[in-house]
Write a structure and sequence with these properties.
The protein is mainly alpha-helical and 190 residues long. It has helices spanning 15-30, 43-55, 61-83, 100-109, 115-118, 124-131, 171-189, and strands at 34-35, 38-39, 89-90, 95-96, 134-136, 143-145. Helices cover 49% and strands 7% of the residues.
């Protein structure tokens, strides 16, 4: 990395910065640099160097680790909401459509859930690939990993024989979900 570049302020909501960061994290994980619920410390300088090349911005390893933790937390909240009975996920808007009563109940259980009522979780498929083996504890304030082996390859490649979500979706249920999406779209267009 060049010495004349100042440390940049990280903005993990910027779509371009976020996408590059997630892609680089996936690459490092695919190369076997995963450790427990995160990446090995040796991965962060490589990611920082690549981000500097891509964005012209320089980040510290601590900033990158904080970005990882931020996105992991977002994914864990979103994932927990997806597993709740009657979660009200809208596949068209990729947000959660709750009745006011149901929303109040969910917000009391998961204080940060409100962010996904009006805004979709960005890069959800990539985050699922990075954090899909991570569990949220009952107190919702800390995380632990299911110890994914470091040699496990994480890929977003399409494979018709392997379900893309953690619910082991069959082709029939996927087809039904697609039909529901189409019906919802046609109702919205009427």
């Amino acid at each position: 990395m060049s010495q004349n570049v100042d440390i940049s302020r990280a903005n993990w909501t910027d779509p371009i910065q976020r996408k590059h960061f997630i892609d680089l994290c996936l690459q490092e994980a695919n190369k076997g640099f995963r450790s427990g619920g995160g990446l090995k410390s040796s991965a962060w300088p490589r990611i920082a160097e690549e981000l500097e090349k891509l964005l012209g911005k320089r980040y510290t390893s601590k900033q990158l680790k904080n970005g990882w933790d931020y996105m992991k937390r977002q994914y864990l909240i979103w994932s927990k909401m997806m597993t709740m009975t009657g979660h009200g996920y809208n596949f068209v808007t990729k947000t959660f459509d709750w009745s006011p009563e149901n929303g109040k109940n969910i917000y009391s259980k998961i204080s940060e859930a409100k962010q996904f009522h009006f805004k979709a979780l960005a890069n959800v498929e990539e985050l699922e690939a990075l954090f899909g083996g991570v569990l949220l504890r009952a107190d919702e304030s800390s995380t632990h990993s299911t110890s994914m082996p470091s040699e496990t390859s994480i890929s977003l490649e399409e494979d018709e024989n392997f379900p893309r979500n953690t619910n082991d979706e069959t082709k029939d249920s996927k087809k039904k979900r697609e039909e529901r999406k189409e019906r919802a779209n046609s109702r919205r267009n009427e």
